[in-house]
Design a protein that fits this description.
The protein is 36% helix and 19% strand. Helix 4 links the parallel strand 3 and strand 4. 27% of the residues are buried. By secondary structure, the chain is α/β, with parallel strands linked by helices. The strands form 3 sheets. A 4-stranded parallel beta sheet has the order 2-1-3-4. The two termini are 30 Å apart. The chain is elongated.
C-alpha cells in the first residue's frame, strides 16, 4: 500500500511521519510532501503534486486547511483517499511528542483501513437489489463495530487496480451535509 503524508512545508510533521512509519512498517511504501509552494521552495522540500496524489492509496493530512488545499487544486478527485490526523503545527522534526501523536492517531483514526488491509481480511457478501433495481450489500455488524462505522457515514470505493476494491470511511463531511 502506498501511503502519503502531507503537511504545510514537508519539514516537520509529514517528514517525521514518513520516516517513522517507513522504519517501523516496511510492508508499505511511505512518502511525504508539503502543500505550500512558498514554504516548500523556502525550505527546499518536496511539494505535493497530482502525480503523488495519484500514486497514493491513502493520504494523511495534518489539519483541515490541508484538505481544503487539496480540494482547491484538484476539486474532489482525491478526497476519497484523505484522512485528517488533526495534528497542529507546533512540533519539530522527530520530536517525541509528535511521534506520540502520530502513534495515537494511528490507533484511533481510520488507520484501521490499513490494518484490515494488512490482515488480508476478505469478506464475501450477497449483492441485493432495491425495488428500483439498484444494487447494494449489507456489511456484517462485527465489521461495522471493528471499523467504528455507523449508519450515515460517507464511504468511498477505492479501486485497488487488481480486481478488488477497498471501502474507506471519509474523514471529511459529505458535500450534502
Amino acid at each position: 500500500m502506498n501511503i502519503l503524508f502531507l503537511c504545510t512545508a514537508n519539514l516537520n510533521r509529514s517528514k517525521t511521519a514518513e520516516n517513522h512509519f517507513a522504519a517501523k512498517d516496511p510492508l508499505h511504501t511511505y512518502r511525504s510532501a508539503g502543500l505550500s509552494e512558498k514554504e516548500c521552495k523556502r525550505n527546499n522540500t518536496t511539494l505535493c503534486s497530482e502525480e503523488l496524489l495519484t500514486w497514493a492509496d491513502l493520504v494523511f493530512v495534518m489539519e483541515d486547511e490541508h484538505v481544503r488545499r487539496i480540494e482547491q487544486h484538484t476539486d474532489q478527485r482525491f478526497l476519497h483517499k484523505v484522512i485528517n490526523l488533526h495534528i497542529p503545527d507546533v512540533y519539530q522534526y522527530g520530536e517525541p511528542d509528535l511521534i506520540e501523536q502520530l502513534e495515537k492517531r494511528r490507533d484511533t483514526t481510520q488507520f484501521e483501513e490499513a490494518k484490515v488491509y494488512q490482515r488480508g481480511a476478505v469478506m464475501k457478501v450477497e449483492i441485493e437489489r432495491t425495488e428500483d433495481g439498484e444494487p447494494f450489500f449489507r456489511l456484517p455488524d462485527e465489521y461495522l463495530v471493528d471499523l467504528k462505522w455507523e449508519d450515515g457515514d460517507v464511504v468511498y470505493w477505492i479501486d485497488n487496480k487488481d480486481g478488488s476494491w477497498t471501502l474507506r470511511k471519509s474523514s471529511v463531511a459529505s458535500p450534502s451535509d
